[in-house]
Amino acid sequence: MAQLDFLQSLIANASIVVQQTCKDWIAAVQLCFEPLIKNQIVKPSYVQGVIDNTNAHGPYYLICPNLAMPHADSKAGALGDGFSLLTLKEPVYFDTHKVSVLIGFAAKNSEVHLEVALPQIVAIFENQEVVEKCAQAQSVDEIIQIIKAIDYFKYLK
């Protein structure tokens, strides 16, 4: 099985962006994926796929209160596997749901999505307090320390 380490992906791709301002969910999704586009993990078409799918099906990637994990099918333009993390000064609305923390995600195949990525995200954010700590974090280093304190491999097979 392919391995993808959440924190190492964030660090390697310099893809943690904190305390930004976005006018709406579309701007937040676009900003969330900028580091993954820059690092050639996704094509711009992947981000458009997320936006198009959200418009067609609603925000299917809301994980828990205040947290979204926007992603699309790999065919939309995933070139590799990776994560990004964006926090917002003020939440944006996905339908009626307020979100301040976005985890951008791309995987070339569904095995990585289901067996590697989602278990790590669940392990990190199953405690709502972690979501709120991330939302309040003022620096990249603060986010890294929050994640380092969690055993996010505990649900991997």
From TrEMBL:
GO BP, one example? phosphoenolpyruvate-dependent sugar phosphotransferase system
Q: Which InterPro entries match?
A: Ascorbate-PTS_EIIA_comp, PTrfase/Anion_transptr, PTS_EIIA_type-2_dom
Q: Where is the PTS EIIA type-2 domain?
A: 9-150
Cellular location(s): Cytoplasm
**Chief location category:** cytoplasm
Instruction: Kindly state which keywords UniProt assigns to this record, in alphabetical order.
Output: Cytoplasm, Kinase, Phosphoprotein, Phosphotransferase system, Transferase, Transport
Give the function comment from the record: The phosphoenolpyruvate-dependent sugar phosphotransferase system (sugar PTS), a major carbohydrate active transport system, catalyzes the phosphorylation of incoming sugar substrates concomitantly with their translocation across the cell membrane. The enzyme II UlaABC PTS system is involved in ascorbate transport.
The protein depicted here goes by the name: Ascorbate-specific PTS system EIIA component
Organism of derivation: Spiroplasma clarkii
Traced from the root, the source organism's taxonomic lineage reads: Bacteria, Bacillati, Mycoplasmatota, Mollicutes, Entomoplasmatales
